[in-house]
Each structure stands twice: as structure tokens, then as C-alpha cells.
Amino acid sequence: MRKITRVGVFTSGGDAPGMNAAIRAVVRTALHNDKKVTGIYHGYQGMIDNTMFDMESKSVSSIIQKGGTVLKTARCMEFKTAEGRAKAYENVRAAGIDALVAIGGDGTFTGAEIFSREFDIPVMCIPGTIDNDLNGTDLTIGYDTANNTVIEAIDKIRDTAASHNRLFFIEVMGRDSGCIALNAGIAGGAEAILLPEKDTAIDELIEMLAHAADRNKSSMIVIVAEGDKNGGANNVAKRVHEKFGYYDTKVSILGHLQRGGAPSSADRVLATRMGYAAVNELLKGNTRATIGIRGSEMVTTPLEEALSKKELKLNEDLVEIAKIMAL
Amino acid sequence: MRKITRVGVFTSGGDAPGMNAAIRAVVRTALHNDKKVTGIYHGYQGMIDNTMFDMESKSVSSIIQKGGTVLKTARCMEFKTAEGRAKAYENVRAAGIDALVAIGGDGTFTGAEIFSREFDIPVMCIPGTIDNDLNGTDLTIGYDTANNTVIEAIDKIRDTAASHNRLFFIEVMGRDSGCIALNAGIAGGAEAILLPEKDTAIDELIEMLAHAADRNKSSMIVIVAEGDKNGGANNVAKRVHEKFGYYDTKVSILGHLQRGGAPSSADRVLATRMGYAAVNELLKGNTRATIGIRGSEMVTTPLEEALSKKELKLNEDLVEIAKIMAL
Amino acid sequence: MRKITRVGVFTSGGDAPGMNAAIRAVVRTALHNDKKVTGIYHGYQGMIDNTMFDMESKSVSSIIQKGGTVLKTARCMEFKTAEGRAKAYENVRAAGIDALVAIGGDGTFTGAEIFSREFDIPVMCIPGTIDNDLNGTDLTIGYDTANNTVIEAIDKIRDTAASHNRLFFIEVMGRDSGCIALNAGIAGGAEAILLPEKDTAIDELIEMLAHAADRNKSSMIVIVAEGDKNGGANNVAKRVHEKFGYYDTKVSILGHLQRGGAPSSADRVLATRMGYAAVNELLKGNTRATIGIRGSEMVTTPLEEALSKKELKLNEDLVEIAKIMAL
Amino acid sequence: MRKITRVGVFTSGGDAPGMNAAIRAVVRTALHNDKKVTGIYHGYQGMIDNTMFDMESKSVSSIIQKGGTVLKTARCMEFKTAEGRAKAYENVRAAGIDALVAIGGDGTFTGAEIFSREFDIPVMCIPGTIDNDLNGTDLTIGYDTANNTVIEAIDKIRDTAASHNRLFFIEVMGRDSGCIALNAGIAGGAEAILLPEKDTAIDELIEMLAHAADRNKSSMIVIVAEGDKNGGANNVAKRVHEKFGYYDTKVSILGHLQRGGAPSSADRVLATRMGYAAVNELLKGNTRATIGIRGSEMVTTPLEEALSKKELKLNEDLVEIAKIMAL
């Protein structure tokens, strides 16, 4: 087993609340084990551009409560080329880094897997994305916070919807994953939910709403995942509109505010546990894997496995429950 | 002076956080003065449809902290006709109501003024709208809460913007009034603000952003009022986009969540004072006027005057300050 | 198997955010299965006082986002007597209730177990308490919300602590359970945590703080669980005070605000799942058990078992992690 | 008129949310006028200890949304001595500072007044304290945020109080000033409020509560200002307790969380305006004065005047309104 003296840490891809807590845990766990730590700005881009710096315990003071990532993040085209990665490796080695912790999503994991194989450098991944669409873990960092942000927005919209007898279509994030939509739909008390994983025909939706309208609901809210097959909240609203003259129809696209905000307690603790586990796994000789949580246990999954399959996160029971609750 | 024995209260037009606190204050102040109170649902529509009910102190328990309006609101076409108003008056008289408190915006005030003149019934208005665009008052109910809602959203967006070196265009409410945009721009630390009251050319905006970009800002936020002459955030973003390749450009339209939420402390107190003043003014014989606050004093302005002019709310000093702060 | 036609539902003991979501799920799941529902006010007291009412789908509209419990709660001495329970059963039968869902904590479960045995009535329990100290489940309803409430308070206190170089002792709820304290300590970035399950000597605490002070921390926060053996935050602060003259020492006892607030997304979803499962289990013939969640699966545990042992909830890894993070 | 080339800025006394926005405005307004800026850590202590640093526009990036003060604050005994002030002045002059902006409360103003006279250095004060107890201004920085923090806590406590039929005594900040208590009492819908400015006998309080209890209120909340003559919430609760057996009595002392948190929109804008005005006044030759807001106008008041009298902030109308609303 290779001896590790310096760990590099970076965030890559879309940011998610709680990434800072993970960074902090990586830094402090490494220092606690007498390892040195290098922070890399802007993900893979920062390896190529050599924007790195030595991190101490103080470097991560008072960041646990902050949204975003203090190490910044980026999507990096150059790293997809062999030349880009070679340059990155050169800088990584020059900095004395002999193991990496990568925090991010699918793209981040893919980059990490290739880089680790090509240059035989130990790497451990931490799943950070609000979409909760990564394999090898029940939960990703940022998902819980995003759910809370979304329901706070829905609660606010419900206030005005109920005052006006309005029908709202609220679009939430999730291009391929309906996790946020489903959670927000249940927690926000939505009358219907459109998920990327399900083909809900507009006619079916109209029937559900008609059923709700029959019971004189003072307001109706439909949650539409970004990746819904019908083309998003605006399109759905247009097609539904004429059927519900009694209700004034409005659309709200929540957008990027779902990405920010102080991380929830659960995300801070999850991220801390994951950062701690990532360093410990590296020090035990584990590599090319992702940290995950299953129930309340920390686990690791080889990146190859995590990247090859598509784990279904959508809980079918919840889909059923959502319908019954809308009655 | 006519003796008042029963006060009718309703909310009309767009809802605003704090309206419930105003309703509560109207009810309890009237009861305290040994008057009876009738609540009217759905504004003027409810007068026509005769959806009214007797209110006691308990009717307004635990509503001060709730967004929206428990009396519901609506926009009513029928009330614009003489027949509609005649029917409304018939119901109002039948219910024994001999004075009205109307909570809402411009349209509400116009209806109240006509109704009061036509049927010689005392009426007092309370300014409730998040836009802060009514005459006769420094502040309207809901404006402070909306400002807080908007900056919470901006703070969240700033987290993700800063993590990605992004340029965000955030559209906030305000069709004719730039009050929210200006406040949010200053409080959110925006790099530029586009107001309906100002003609900001796209070229001028680009120059401001170029100036900010020169100083290596990690993120830039432009606040665009709904009523901006350039056609809203999407249009502005499209036109600015090509000039700022270094920054990833995103648009966020905050939408109706700005209307909801638990009212802020300031809005609850303002609404309580206005509800209290409205009833007291009616009991003193004042009529056909709107309640307002000037500095820390409660004032009244005749509706005729309040509706005839356009009071400029935009503070020019703040426009200047916003520019300097963005440096 | 006994045929169930009417389900009674009540909350008992300390309230917890998310109880309303559980009530809503019980009501709608029962109605969906063509059962009738009776709501019982004030827990066991309401059975004795016969304060019950028929619940429809509308009865639980717009309550999912509300803290507390719309069915109210109480601690009931009379129910501990055979006469009290006999009277309760008489009323329950007279109301046509042939199965019960009880939402609450240990005391609630004990009452349910006895009542169900004595009168052979099916009963299913749902764990609701912010303390997360019940057997048969990984998580109780309200715990996640309380954690978020606590870290929001800690974040605020950190602002002022850091501005003043202050040492704060923050007391959080948890008479027997350190779950909130441990979570809050990690998520709030505390320098030390005192748990009821651990005997932390004052000297040991002082050593930890001295170590932190050596690294010139601008502020220090110690989380003290209510049930800490040293006698609570005030006592601990007094004993520590003289050693840290450089730091101004303050105490904050968070108190009952930890019990309230809109439930988090996770608590709303958990409570909804538990309410749904409780009714389904009753309809399947299960009785005298508590609903729980293990990982992402819903489970049931016989009340006898849940009440006989003491499941340790405190995660020892987290205790270790908390120490390393404070470095 | 003396030419100013470098402005020193510091915060002193108790911290308040919005101080960072004021610092930011001072720095950017000064830079905009081609002045240099020195930040002084820990208030007057930092002048003596010479902990100062050059501030650029970047120094105040992304601080507008943060609670506390990035310049830290302290209470400084040494500055009360002539030697201390002489040492402070020496350092101030050595740093090239020829004008000062002091952000804080009464103690800060007193120090500024003496220092400015002794050493003939221009100084402008900005009122920052959550207590709203300073002369020369309608509002101080931090007061609005604290009011919002307090009502969020009260709303949470109301949830649990209402679920249990409880009587809560909530102690809020305000040693001499009842501003927070009065606002929070009205906005939180309290049944009674105890203010330092009023002598409310316990008997009178009991009578008010008895009156409320007669109307079967499901919960009662009494707001007690820290400086209430009866000795604080714990003492009041003890004395009231025996009279209200039906209600379970609880005490909650909100404490220092009232000091922190992200500043409200209104506080950010107020602080920005005050920081801007402070620098402009200095540049116009004004000195030894405090910035204030009256209605929507910025004003200045000589420190001598501001410190010599006691302006009554408590709005008597609000005291009356609070009583009527509790009916």
C-alpha cells in the first residue's frame, strides 16, 4: 500500500449545499492523521491551471454553514482530453499530492475514475448534488437542503394560491431524476406531480385535477420536474389551462435558488461523515470508489460499478402515497 | 355624523403578506368599540355573491402570522357595472353593514371610492400590496416581507453564482414600480439594477458589467424589475450574453413566491396600526380616504386625491447609492 | 380478523413538528380505504372527556406545513387509572371507533399497549418526538426539524460570538438522549459537546477548550444537552468560566422554540409515510405495534418489545467525528 | 476645512446585524470619493493595540448578508483612560487616518465624542444596536432584524403552546428599552407585554391574563423585556403560576440568538444609507455627530445633543394598540 502524505481536495460540476462541510471534514480528518492537504480551486480546471493552495485547519473555519463551495467549481472541457489530464497530473505531482478527494456528481466521478487509472493515483469520491441521482448511496449531499428550499417556496406560493383560488404549476430541478419533485410534491401537499421517470399524459393530469376541483379545493398545485416529458411547467400549464376556467392559472419556475442556501442540519452531518470516511478509506488503501450512505451505515462502491448502472432512486411507494394524499 | 353599528371588512386585488394582521386589527378594534363586524369573502365579488359572515374575536385568532388573506381575494369585473354595484349594495345593507374597510391596491381604492359615493356609505381603505406603489403612504402592507423574501432568494443564488463565476439575471416583481428591485438590488449587493422608472440602455448595462468584470468579481447579479423597458430578464440576458463569455449566464424569475410567506415583524405591526386607525377614523366620521404612514405617524388621504396623482416612490438617492455600492 | 369501519386518531405527550402531516396521512389513507375517521382532541384526556369529532378529507387541508398538532395534546393522569381507561373505552366504543392510531412518545405507547390489551382494540403507534429516543425506528417525527431549528439558532449565536471572541454554552433539548446535542454540535461546528450518555468531566472539557483556545479561535461554542450530568449549561458555564478570562462567557438555553416551527421536508415525508403505513398495518390485521423506519424501509415492532428495551441511538462514530472536527 | 485623505472605520460595543452593510458602504463610498480606508479591528481596543489594515473594495465583498461584524467588536476599558486614548491617537495618526466612522451604541458615541474633542479629529457615528435606544434617529441598525428573529421564535413557541394549552413567558432583549418587547408583543400576538418603561404590577398582569383565560384561549404568551421591573421572565412566571392551574406554565429566555442572523432587507438598506451618509458628511466638513433617519430622510445630530438627553422611543399608541389586540 502506497504511503499518503498529502491529500488534494476539490469540488467539481454543479455545486450543492453541504459541499463546504465535506471539504472541512476532509481537511480536518487528514490533518488529524498527520497528512497535509492541498485545496484545488475550480475542480479539474484548477489542476490544469495550477490554482492550488495549502490548507490548514483555519482554512475551513466557519464554512460549515455556508452554501456553495469555497473551493469553487467548474465544468472542464480540457480535462476530457489526454493532454489536459497530463497537464493536470503534472501539477498535482508537483504539488506533492498523492491522493485525491473529489466532491461532485456523475461527471466528476467519471473524470476521477479515468484520472486515477491513467496515473495510478488513489482517489475517493463524495457524492454532492441536489438531484440525488448518483449510484452507491441512498442520499447525496445537498438533496435534503434543496428539498427544504423547495417546500419553503411552495408554502409561500400556497399562501397566495389559496387567497385567489389559483392553479399553480411549479417547476423544480431534476432533469433525469424526479426525487426533488416527488418529495416536494408530498411535503408541499401538491395535487399532482409530473416526474421524468413516469409518462403522465396531459389527459391523465387533467382528470386528476378535475377530481380535485370537484371537491372545491381553494387552490391547486402541480409540481413539474424540469425533465418531465411534457416539456416543462410552461407547456403543461398552457395545455391544461382551458379546462380550468374557474381557476386562474400561474406558472412558477423555481430555478437556481434551489442550489443555494445554508445547508440543513442533515446535509451538514452527512457531508461531515462522508468527508471523514473518504480520507479514512484512502488511508486504509481503498481507491477508485465513491463514499455512500446506506441506512445509517457508510459504505463504498467502486467507481466502475457506480458509473456502469443506473440505480433507481424513485420510491414507488411514495409515488402511490402522493396520489392518495392528494385526494 | 352617521352612527355606525356594523363594519364590513374585505380584501381585494392581489394579496399581500400582512393583510391578515390588518383584518385582525379591524375586527378587534371594532369589537373593542362595541361595533359588530362582518367579514366579506373574495372582495367585491363576495358582496355581489353575498358570501359574508359574522366575525368575532376568535375569528381572527392565530392569523397574524399567516401569509395570504383568510378573507380570500378576487378581481371582480361585475363590480365595474352599475348593476353589479347595486346588487352588492343591496347585500351589504341587508347584512346591516353601515361602514366598510377595504384592504388592497389601486383597483380596490377605485371601487371603494365609486361605491361610497354612489350609495353614500362610509369607507376607509388600507393600502396592501407588495409593490409599494400606492399614494398617501410611505409604505404599503407586504412590501417589507416581499423585500425579505427577495433577498433570501438572492442570497441563495449568490451562493451558487459565486461557486461558478456566473452572471445571473434575477427578475423581481414590479410592473410599474421599481421599489422591490431597487431595495433588493442594494440589499442583495447587485452589480446592476434595471427599473421601470429608468431607461437603462443595454449598452449602458454592458458597460457597468464590463467595469465590474474588470475587477474579477467571482459572480455578478443583475436585478431586473418585471416592468423594465427592455422586456424582462430573459430578453436582457440574451442581449448581454455574448459580451461575457467568461461568465456563464443564467436567468431566474422569482415569480409568485414573492407574494407569500409569513409577514415580517414590520409588516405585522404596520398592518395592525393601519387596521386600528381605519376603524377609528370611520368612528370619528372620516370617510372615502386611505390610511397611510408618513415617517412614524398615521395619516389619511382622501381617495380622490390618492387616486388622481402618481406619487413617485423611487428614492433617487438610493438609485445613486446602488451604483456606488456596486463598484 | 376483525373488520375495521372507523379509525380513531390522536396525538399525546409532547408535540413535535410533523405530527399534523401524520394525522393528515392517517385520515386520507383511511378514507381512501373507505373507512371513517374520528379525531380525538387532547390525547387520552379527550377519550375520557369525549371531545371527538368526525374527520373528512377537508379536515386536514393545509395542515401539513404547520407545527404543533391540530388535535392538541396533553399528558393525562386519569388514563393511568383503570376507571379512567374504562370511561375512555366507553366513549371510544360509543363513537364507533374500532381501531386507534396513537401519535406520540414512550408514555403514549405505554398507554396504547395497556388500553389495547385491556379492551382488545387494535392500535398502531407512530413515533413522534423531537428527541429521537424511541425504539423500533431510526428516526422519530420532529427530530429533523428540531435539528434544523437548533442549528439556525447556533448559526445566529456564532455570528455574535465571533464578533466578540466569546465562549458560549448553548443548552439544547434531550433529557435522556444526546441525539439533538450531537447532531447540533457537529452541524453547528461546536468546539465541545456534553451528552447525557457520556460522563464528560469538567476538567476534560476545560482541556478541550484550552486546546481550542491555543489555536486562537475567535469564538467557541459548547453544546450542552439538557440531561448532561454536570447539571446543565448554567452550571457548566460557571465552573468553566474562571479558566477562560480571555473569552467572555455567555449561556443560551434554547428552550421550547425547539419544539415548534413548520416541519422540514424530511419530517413531512416521514410523517406521511408513517401515517399511511399505520392505517395499512391496521387494515392488514396488525396491532399493538409501532411503525418505524429502518434505512428507507417501513417496519413495525410489537409495542411490548419497543417498550421493554432501551435502544441506543447515539452513533459512536459521530461522537468521534465531532471531536476530530473541533480540532 | 481639513482635507481628508484616509478614513478609519470600526465597530464597537454590542454587535448588531447590518453592521457589515454599514462597513461596506463606508468603504465603498470613501473609495468612490478617492479616499483611502483603514479598517480597525475590535473597536477602540484595536486603536490601542494597533490592529489595523488597509481596506479595498474587495475587502467588503460578500459581507452585506452576514450577521455580526467582520471588524469584530469589543468593550474597551483602557480607552476610558487618558493614556489609553493617547496611545490610540498615536496609532491612528501613524496610520494616516484623518477621520473616523464609529459604528455602535451609546458607549461608542461617548468615546467618539471625547476622542474627537481631545485630538481634534473628525468623527461621524452610525447607530448600530438591536435595542433601538439611541437618540437622533428613528431606527438603529439591527433593530428590524432582531424583531424578525424574535417573532420567528414566538411563532415557533406558539405552535407548541397552542398544542398544550400553555402559558408562556418569553423574555426578549432590552435592558432599558421596551422597543423589541412591544414590537414582538404586537407582531407575535401576545396576550400581555411587560416593558421597562412601564410599571406593570403583577396583579394587573394577572387580571389581564384572567380576562384572556375567560375567553378560553388555547394558549397565552406574555412578552417580558429583560429590563422589566419585576425581575425578568422567571420571576414573573413564578409569581403568576399559581393563579393559572389550567395552563401549564413555561419560560423561554431567547438570549443571544437575537443578536445574530443575516440582516433583514430593511437593515441592509438602512445601514448602507447610513454608511454612505457618514462618509459624505465627513467630506462636507461635518463632525462629532451621529447619522440618523427621520421618516425617510437622513439627518445628523451633534453627539453632544444625542448623548445629553433621553429620547423616548416607545410609541404610546402602540402600547394602547397592544392591549386592544390582546382582547
UniProtKB/TrEMBL annotation, chains A, B, C, D:
Residues at the catalytic site: D131
Subcellular location: Cytoplasm
Class of this enzyme: transferase
Enzyme Commission identifier(s): 2.7.1.11
Residues the record lists as binding Mg(2+): D106
GO terms of molecular function: 6-phosphofructokinase activity; AMP binding; ATP binding; fructose-6-phosphate binding; identical protein binding; metal ion binding; monosaccharide binding
Binding site for ADP: R24, A25, V26, V27, R28, R158, G189, A190, E191, R215, K217, S218, S219
GO biological process: canonical glycolysis; fructose 1,6-bisphosphate metabolic process; fructose 6-phosphate metabolic process
Short name of any one Pfam family annotated for the protein: PFK
General function of this protein: Catalyzes the phosphorylation of D-fructose 6-phosphate to fructose 1,6-bisphosphate by ATP, the first committing step of glycolysis.
Assembly and oligomerization: Homotetramer.
Name of the molecule in the record: ATP-dependent 6-phosphofructokinase
Organism listed in the record: Sphingobacterium corticibacterium
